Amino acid sequence: MKRSSGDLAAWVLGGALVAGFLSIPLSHTAELRAQLLGTHPAPSWGGLAVLGLGLLLATRSVLHKGFAWADPAQLTWADFDGSRPALLRRRLLLAWLGRFGAAAYVVLATGTLLGFSWPVLEITAFATVAAGTLAAAAPAVRSGRAELVRRYRERLVRRTALTFLDVLALLPAGQPVRWPGALAGHAVVARFALAVILSRRRSLPTAGLLAAAVALAHALFPAVDPAWWLGLGGYCAALPFASALAELTRSPGLRRWIGRGDREVRATAAAVLVLFLALWEGLAVALGVSVSAAGVTALVVAAAAVVRTATRAGVDYGNLGTTAVAGILVPAGLLWQVGHGPDLLVVCLVLLLVSGIALAVPLSLGLSAAAVLRT
């Protein structure tokens, strides 16, 4: 089906906006360098660190094999001409180009900001890892029906969640936990919150990578207050562990099964997430991030923002609140609903950075407590 002229114009406009945004580090290098580095010199090892982290993330994404999927109906009724391997190879190539293209851009932009040049050794390492990843992922084009259908279902969930802006549906499902008495006895809410973290243990490596990314960002851009990196990184690290809280909020049956008040559930979940983020911050500090009152407060705010995100009401698609901004229709009401949670994080981080600690810390903690204990 051909695209309409309106769709084509939207794609062109979107592409122009993305291209303009991506060109900022390359066209406004001096201004950004002054904001991010200040008077501090760039570390000599920064280029290699960015290169290594970018290659690690790109390789991990490609080897996840998200390209190897197939519609079960297609497999049943139309998979007889032998074209499936060629189709999967094209998807693999596109996924590989996209991931390593993004990694190359990040490395190039960061190197430009930090004033690094890329010798032949680094370029060779990038090409070698990219080629090795492509070769390692190639056998996935011969995946069996069960794997193809499983990844198709995962892809369908992701597409549906993105279509309806339901970010919580993208959070990982839990794995079985060997803890027979997890939900028996006293303090059942605390046990439930701890069991949730244990059941999402597959997200722990991602949290570790985020801690390393925060430490790297702090080392590369010392002029930026580490509270920003800790707050944003802590929110992303803790969010996967709030998926069960979101299910509990959306399922009245599960909610009645817990048998505790909303405030107790939210406060306990926030307390457990704060403890988790304290351990996460310890890892970040061990990697070189400096500790401050603003940084510690940012983690408490991040935990409260995660709870606020997980316990928000379902999106009301009848309340789009469309308004014109610079000639572009923006669904302000929908964005306001989707931003329920991150808004607390952004507001408190701004307070921590523009106000004095004596005012910003108690105000941020008060806003976080109000968000968690709301009725």
Structural features:
transmembrane helix, 18 helices, 375 residues, membrane, mainly alpha, transmembrane, 3 domains, DUF6297, single chain, two-stranded antiparallel ribbon
Description:
- InterPro entries: DUF6297 (IPR046264).
- Pfam families: DUF6297.
- Keywords: Membrane, Transmembrane, Transmembrane helix.
- With 375 residues, this protein is mainly α.
- It has a two-stranded antiparallel ribbon with strand order 1-2.
- A hairpin with a 2-residue loop joins β1 and β2.
- The longest helix is centred in the first third of the chain and has 31 residues.
User: Rg from C-alpha positions?
Assistant: 23 Å
Strand order of the largest sheet: 1-2
**Distance between the amino and carboxyl termini:** 49 Å
> What's the total count of β strands?
2
Largest sheet: 2 strands, antiparallel
Low-confidence stretches: none
Strand content: under 5%
Count of the separate structural domains: 3
InterPro entries: DUF6297
Keywords: Membrane, Transmembrane, Transmembrane helix
Transmembrane segments: 45-63, 93-117, 123-144, 204-221, 227-246, 267-287, 293-310, 317-338, 344-373
Entry summary:
This protein has 18 helices and 2 strands. It is mainly α and about 375 residues long.
Secondary structure elements and pairings:
Layout: H1 5-22, H2 24-27, H3 29-36, H4 46-63, H5 72-77, H6 84-114, H7 120-137, H8 145-163, H9 188-199, H10 204-220, H11 226-238, H12 243-250, H13 252-258, H14 262-286, H15 293-310, E1 322-325, E2 328-331, H16 332-338, H17 342-354, H18 357-372
Antiparallel strand pairs: 1-2
Helix pairs in contact: 4-6, 4-7, 4-10, 6-7, 9-14, 10-11, 10-14, 11-14, 11-15, 11-17, 12-13, 14-15, 15-17, 15-18, 17-18
Keywords: Membrane, Transmembrane, Transmembrane helix
Pfam family, one: DUF6297
